[in-house]
Amino acid sequence: ADRDSLRRIGPMGGAAAAADRLVEAGLVTRFQARMLLAGKRRGFVLGGKYRVLDRLGAGGMGQVLLCEHLN
């Protein structure tokens, strides 16, 4: 998965819809999507490139996560 894959995901309508679209794009597995929806994000690796370290904040449109680039 790359930036183009993320761009193709497009606008998302809620957390469950976002999780479904990440699975469809091949960026996460169904299991990973369930863990993210349950709030279990620490140490999670997104797209094989980014490790989630912490949540910086959240608002009406989503969350901002602090991530480490692995490559």
Which SSEs are present, and which pair or pack?
Blueprint: H1 3-9, H2 15-24, H3 30-37, E1 45-46, E2 50-59, E3 62-69
Antiparallel strand pairs: 1-2, 2-3
Helix pairs in contact: 2-3
- Number of strand elements: 3
Approximately what portion of the residues adopt beta-strand conformation? 25-35%
* Helix/strand order: HHHEEE
Outline the low-pLDDT stretches: none
Give the biggest sheet: 3 strands, antiparallel
| Silhouette | globular
What structural class do you assign from the helix and strand content?
alpha+beta
Main-sheet strand order equals 1-2-3
User: What is the radius of gyration computed over CA atoms, rounded to a whole number of angstroms?
Assistant: 12 Å
Number of helices: 3
Tell me what the structure shows.
This protein has helices spanning 3-9, 15-24, 30-37, and strands spanning 45-46, 50-59, 62-69. With 71 residues, the chain is an alpha+beta fold. A three-stranded antiparallel sheet has the order 1-2-3, with no helix packed on it. The longest helix has 10 residues, at 15-24. The protein is globular, with a radius of gyration of 12 Å. The mean pLDDT is 79.
Considering the chains and any ligands shown, give keywords for the structure.
alpha+beta; 3-stranded antiparallel β-sheet; 71 residues; 3 helices
In short:
This protein has 71 residues and is of the alpha+beta class.
